[in-house]
Amino acid sequence: MRRADLAGVRVGDDGPVVIIGALNIGPESFYRGSVVRGEGEVIERAGRMLEEGASIIDIGAMSTAPGIKPISASLERRRLIPVIKALAKELDAPISVDTQRAIVAEAALEAGAGMVNDVSGLKADPRMARVIADFKCSAVLMAARQRPGDARTVDEIRRALEDSLRICERHGIEAQKIAVDPGIGFGKGAEWDLYILANLNRLKALGRPICVAVSRKFFIGHVLNLPDPADRLWGSLAATAIAVLNGADVVRTHDPKETSHAIRVAEAVRSGKNQRLKR
User: What is the domain range of residue 190?
Assistant: First the structure.
């Protein structure tokens, strides 16, 4: 069964697609509309996302977009921890921390986060798997061979994720707390992102729920000739619907309300594929 418990939220199998609302507290984010400043704004935006259909809030403090210089672990932690503490106090919803660093993940989990979103698939920091195991928390692991987004073909993605799942097994991390992400974006080129989206269904063989993050990414701008991510909402919704039709169980997005509408229509079509119409 492709089922997982992500910080108390059931995902996978024939259940409804779950939305993760993405917020950034670092000004380096590729999409300025996702950036929030100050605890008050974070709480307000996160609360609105939950009202609009998100079930989990994902907070990141360091951009992983191509060409952006990484910030220090100490700065990442200083940005994240006060915000996560405030969210954990004010919101009754799971919080995910978007980080590749074990020291940051550990502090975030202590502050109230219940899930780690690691775009390196546990490969950037050898301590990350131990932190996840010690806290018995959930995780979304992205396909990475040596760095985030460097897996392009379905075979490369599958092998990279199998490696990550083996790391989980070695550290005693429950498979039922893990979802996988094929890694759309991250500078691999629009043609590869489109290929992954078209072949997403092939990753079901991994036996884990599939999380897809296409919101406002470069490949959408490439197809539509829209260089500004602020103009890519409608393309994002089209890509989301295709992802759901092709097997996505979880969608990470900057726009939960609009995305939830696209998901519901795609789910209805997906369920209709398995039904025989009565004459």
Answer: 3-272
